[in-house]
Amino acid sequence: MRPLRRTRQNGGVKLLVAAHASELAAFEADIPGFERLLTGVGKIPAASALTRALCQGEYDEIVVVGTAGAIDDAVEGGIYDIAGAIQHDVKGLDGTFGEHVSLPPRVDTGHDGLVIATGDHFVDDAQTVALIRGLGARLVDMESYALIWVAQQFGVPIRILRAVSDRAQDGATELWDVVVERCSHQLRDEFRTRYGV
């Protein structure tokens, strides 16, 4: 059952979403046609914050920006659309890695792009990367699956743009702190190209 939402009087509003404030460092506080939502890092904060926002207002589209780690050597730095998300920190009742006991194995945005693996821990070692790569993902993050799933429950279109911040290998935690501002500027440029604001 879909939660009730208050309809906005002005219409045509999109929701700009990021998990961490540093991912929005290059974005102005006020962007015409957009409201801003900072969710916090991880699946539960992301799901909770987006659910509250969608219960309170009507949006034409959710546009998520942020960073991701690359787990495929063929994925270079840059900005990528996310086509779908899986979870890398769950197991099914039979112990199958990447399957949740009740949620779908994969959720999709409806856009062409890469598959991302979402989990509630920061991936920064080669052994974990190898396991996750086996699920078919090429990037990793901590929110995309939750955000897509919530958007689907409300029937709101969602687009996720991820900037590659690291190779998701040993030392990636330290690298993220250094490159996130550069990634934010790349995301802002891509956002301006796509949305004209």
Automatic annotation (TrEMBL):
Residues in Nucleoside phosphorylase domain copies: 38-96, 111-177
Gene3D superfamilies (UniProt xref): Nucleoside phosphorylase domain
GO CC, alphabetical: cytosol
Single GO biological process annotation from the record: nucleoside metabolic process
Gene Ontology MF term list: adenosylhomocysteine nucleosidase activity; methylthioadenosine nucleosidase activity
Database matches in InterPro entries: Nucleoside_phosphorylase_d, Nucleoside_phosphorylase_sf
Name of the molecule in the record: Adenosylhomocysteine nucleosidase
Annotated source species: Microbacterium enclense
